[in-house]
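Troubleshooting: if your tokenizer reports a length mismatch, compare your output against this known-good record of 180 residues.
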Amino acid sequence: MDMKNILTITYKVFNNDWDLLQLFLKNQGYPKYQLFGDVFLDMRSDIITLGNLISITGNLRLWECKNLKSLGSLVSVTGDLNLYNTRLKDLGKVTTIGGYLDITDSQIESLNNLKKIGGTIYLSGSKIKSFGKLSNVDFKIFPEKHKFGNKTYIYKTYPDFLYYQYCNNEPIQQKKRLLQ
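Known-good structure output:
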């Protein structure tokens, strides 16, 4: 990615005001940009996409953003990504999250391109069906028991492996190497 064509913005300059930032971006022709700072947009019904936001150096909280349909161009979040109770179906282009990922009670079915989570992943009540390209979870998957389709799995995460076992009358222990 050519970083010289990406605008770098400190969120604090806009008083942590998403609407003020969007007005600025509109006047700039909606360029690709990266943000520095924590962005908390809890329960905003007017946010449908994050547009040309490429990365956030900080935390991103979109808790109960019911009309959010896309994370847009977002590729990385250095802190936590909280998508609690959203209607997103997937994580789009996101490849790395430096902190935890919370998809509790969300509609997310796939982690798509996500390769690394620096913290815990929270799955309770989510619709998750696929870990996609996930290759590393630094802490743990919570809950450690989760249902995929008609099977329930128990997870144990370690630096290079995700261990899981079926719980539905299938005592076979499975070991999936996550890192190539």
